[in-house]
Specification:
69 residues; mainly alpha; 2 helices; 78% helix; rod-shaped
Length: 69
Amino acid sequence: MKKLASIAIPAVMVCILAAGIVIAASRGVKNGEKAECESWAAQAKEYPLFFSADWQKEQCQTYGIALNK
């Protein structure tokens, strides 16, 4: 029984730690993408010839940010 506990407890702790890392990384990526969209939206307003690719528009739609001029 002790041998099982000595294996199971660290394994559970590793799984919890891994899940925490995945969640933190996901939030970081989302925050970075949103910041990019806010920057692109500001540039689109400032520069009349600013070009946004379709993937940029799609990314920004995800966060409710329009890249219209």
